[in-house]
Amino acid sequence: MKKTLAALGLACAALGLALPSQAAIVVSLVPSSTHINVGESVTVAVNISGLGSEIASGYDLTVLFAPSVLAAGSITQFLAEFGGLANISSGASFGAGFVGADLVSFLDDPTLSADQSDAFTLLSLSFIGLADGVSSLSFGLDPDYERNVVGLDAATLNAAFGSICIEVGNGQCTVPEPSTYALLGAALAGMLVPNVRRRRQLTRKG
Fold first, then answer.
1. In what order do the strands lie in the sheet with 41-49?
2. Which of 98, 140, 148, 199 holds its CA 20 to 30 A away from the CA of 157?
3. Is residue 1 part of a domain?
4. What is the CATH number of the domain that holds 154?
């Protein structure tokens, strides 16, 4: 029994090491719905959380989607946390399969720190369903112009960026099981089987 518990502890520790470390700051996509019909719209909020002692003084973000399934509608940038219209520079862009937005606040860091909370909405996007299917929504890979949020002293924040899947009509999103968990399950099963056999042998001898 002790050997089994020790092995289980080691397996859990190995799982912890195998999983990617998450940044405390997260930029997430939060849909009003994960399923819409063709012709319907969905609103997606781009939220930031876990700022703690940090701030968000600006961003340059691009969200990618499947243009055969979704069409970009509109962008709404929330300015209150950045000092309002008089204290920011911002822009938006649309293209085939992407929608982007950038913003820079002209307020100093202490003022932003006093005005911002730990979590708030940066912007919201709307999409319209074009055809049956699924579309992932994710941030682009360019760390400067597609997934960049800056904080204190205009330094890029160490943030984790989320993604989501939107179903349109008959489309169905699939969520693959992480291989790490499958491997852990196989390892645990391999440890338990010998113990069960050993107990049966001891029972028969007794």
1. 70-77, 120-129, 41-49, 25-31, 159-161
2. 98
3. no
4. 2.60.40.680
Count of structural domains within the chain: 1
Q: Is residue 13 part of a domain?
A: no
pTM summary value? 0.75
Query: Residue type at 43?
Result: T
Phi-psi region at 190: left, alpha or beta (left = phi > 0; alpha = psi -120 to 50): alpha
What CA dihedral angle connects 181, 186, 189 and 194, to 10 degrees?
Answer: -150
Q: Is residue 206 part of a domain?
A: no
Residue 128's DSSP bridge partners are 41, 71
188 pLDDT tier (thresholds 50, 70, 90): very low
- What is the rounded CA–CA span in Å between residue 107 and residue 150? 13
Task: Report if residue 193 sits inside a domain.
Answer: no
Scored b (16 or more CB within 10 A) or e, 49-74 reads ebbeebbbbbbbbbbbbbeebbebee
Is the separation of the CB atoms in 109 and 57 below 8 Å? Answer: yes
Whether residue 206 has pLDDT greater than 70? no
| pLDDT: which is higher, 95 or 176 | 95
What does the alpha-carbon distance between residue 104 and residue 88 come to, in Å, rounded to a whole number?
A: 6
Beta strand 25-31 with 163-168 is: unpaired
User: CA-CA distance, 33 to 42, in Å (whole number)?
Assistant: 6
CB-based contact 46:111 (threshold 8 Å): no
